[in-house]
Write a structure and sequence with these properties.
The complex is a heterodimer of chains A (about 110) and B (about 110).
Chain A: E1 4-5, E2 10-14, E3 19-25, E4 30-38, E5 45-51, E6 56-59, E7 62-67, E8 72-77, E9 86-94, E10 99-101, E11 105-110
Parallel strand pairs in A: 2-11
Antiparallel strand pairs in A: 1-3, 3-8, 4-5, 4-9, 6-7, 7-8, 9-10, 9-11
Chain B: E1 4-7, E2 10-13, E3 18-25, E4 31-37, E5 44-50, E6 53-57, E7 64-70, E8 73-79, E9 87-94, E10 103-104, E11 108-112
Classes of the chains: A mainly beta (about 110), B mainly beta (about 110).
């Protein structure tokens, strides 16, 4: 059974608007959460992370929110740009454990 | 070269061939990883190396044989693969095994005929 779920395989957003990517996890013991971005023919690129002691982390246009009670992680991109079009993976980790990835959400930002 | 590099980027091999994938990290990290990404599946961890010692083998068939000669290089030796082994193989590195952020290479797209 999947421990990390990205229920939307794809998302389409207009340039300049907000993109919201969602991720749900099952184990409340996960302590570190990351988002990676992947362009075609490239490896995943680290984007932003958050530890379980925080509920928000911001880096420029990218903000990650963590709702521990709901076991829910989200990535907000605002304003969205066409260059943000990529597959976004969330990943989670237990203390001393390996990263567990979701299946990814393909974001398309239309000009 | 910077970051994590992988060669070759594309590989087509028959089921009886023997080939090797190479990964090199230029980040000064001490942990390296092999992942497999099949279509419509999450990234699957295959092997973890820390300070050149294998610390995890995630139930991977013996037709995949990793080698880590030093902390900067990681190989994946392939022999008698099956068509279902066709996938994107990704290498990653981090500072501290299972700690910190993992940085990925561009991957090798493997096709087994």
């Amino acid at each position: 059974d999947q421990q990390v779920k990205q229920n939307s395989p794809s998302l389409s957003v207009q340039e300049g608007r907000i993109s919201i990517l969602n991720c749900d996890y099952t184990n409340s013991m996960f302590d570190y959460f990351l988002w990676y971005k992947k362009y075609p023919a490239e490896g995943p690129t680290f984007l932003i992370s958050i530890s379980s002691i925080k509920d928000k982390n911001e880096d420029g246009r990218f903000t990650v929110f963590l709702n521990k009670s709901a076991k829910h992680l989200s990535l907000h991109i605002v304003p969205s740009q066409p260059g943000d079009s990529a597959v976004y993976f969330c990943a989670v980790r237990l203390v001393g454990g390996n990263l567990i990835f979701g299946k990814g959400t393909k974001l398309s930002v239309k000009p | 070269e910077t970051g994590v590099t992988q060669t070759p980027r594309h590989l087509v091999m028959g089921m009886t061939n023997k080939k090797s994938l190479k990964c090199e990290q230029h980040l000064g990290h001490n942990a390296m990883y092999w992942y497999k990404q099949s279509a419509k599946k999450p990234l699957e961890l295959m092997f973890v190396y820390s300070l050149e010692e294998r610390v995890e083998n995630n139930s991977v068939p013996s037709r995949f044989s990793p080698e880590c000669p030093n902390s900067s290089h990681l190989f994946l030796h392939l022999h008698t693969l099956q068509p279902e082994d066709s996938a994107l193989y990704l290498c990653a590195s981090s500072q501290g095994v299972r700690r910190g952020t993992q940085y990925f290479g561009p991957g090798t797209r493997l096709t087994v005929l």
